[in-house]
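Aim 2 progress update. The chain analyzed this quarter is reproduced below.
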Amino acid sequence: MANDFYQERIRRCCRLMETAGLDVMVLTKPANMFYLTGDGRLCAYAMITREGELALGVPSTDLEDVRRLAHFDHLTGFEDEVGMIHSIAHYFERFGIRQGVVGLEYAFLPQPRMGMLTHPHAKPEGVVAKDCTPIMSELRLVKYEGEIEAMKKAAQVAVQGMEAALEAVTYGVTESQVVAAAEYAMRLNGAVDFYRSYVSSGPRTNVAHGLPTLRKLQEGDLVMIDIHPVVDGYSADMCRMACVGTPASEQQAAHDLYVEALEATIAKAGAGVEMTELERTMHGALEAAGHKDHIFGPPIHGIGIEFEESPLPPGHAFFHGEAAPPPLDANVVIAIGNCGLYTGPWGVRVEDTVVVGPTGQSS
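Predicted structure tokens:
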């Protein structure tokens, strides 16, 4: 992306920082760094002042790679964690920030990393920390045209991966081999990474997030496949069901009901709609058919650079350290179908990635 594209994101970020009373932010979450700089990697940080200066600190081994890939005003390298702390202190000095408020990603940072970023050798004593999670979530909420195009590519790659996975579903193969088929096809068609790929079979389809095992598929098994390829830095989310042989009538009925509920929810995903209304639509259809006790988790989550991000339903958002979402805007991208229907002996789930369109429209 062109530098002026990142400059616009940084200008928006600075406006939100001013409103929140932040003088500077230090970001270590790769997705947030990627959004503002075009590069997000582990063991690195980005520092953004309210005036829009952007500094990066990365391992010395990565300097040339970052110079080639990232947008920044200042760049420094370090050899270890102590060097990282000292480089942060150097930037505070360079920017003349000795008093004020630094934004940190409370929802992402474990306690030891929080302690590292607030260490007296990292930040000045007169600088206090405040959560900047809501700022980054708000920035990333509505997607630009280029982001949506990247996500459409990821969705196309997911289709190709799913076709390969479904073809691999045969008696005697393992769940791991089904995943291998999906991920190999997605790599061949442009995926550079994946968020976790889930495959569960037989009684394991009653597991909410079934990581693949060496269990061999048996005759009559349902198979749940959920994939999240990353293309051009953005993800898509797709879940489908298969059966080794012919599903039982109650399994087919549950699957068909779930698809009907999913399609009804997708049809409502237009600008101005509350996440809670979409949640009620999905859950309501399942509950009306007698499955109130068979639902687990929220049916909707945002998707973008990460396969789960804002917006999240209010209750789910709270436990992720996020604010309750406002009504949906056009060009917010969500995955619908996440809740699943889990009967005990088996479960079904179907999920799709949806771009929120103008009022009453989705794609």
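The CA atoms of residues 192 and 230 lie 6 Å apart. The longest strand covers residues 222-231. These observations will guide the mutagenesis experiments scheduled for the next reporting period.
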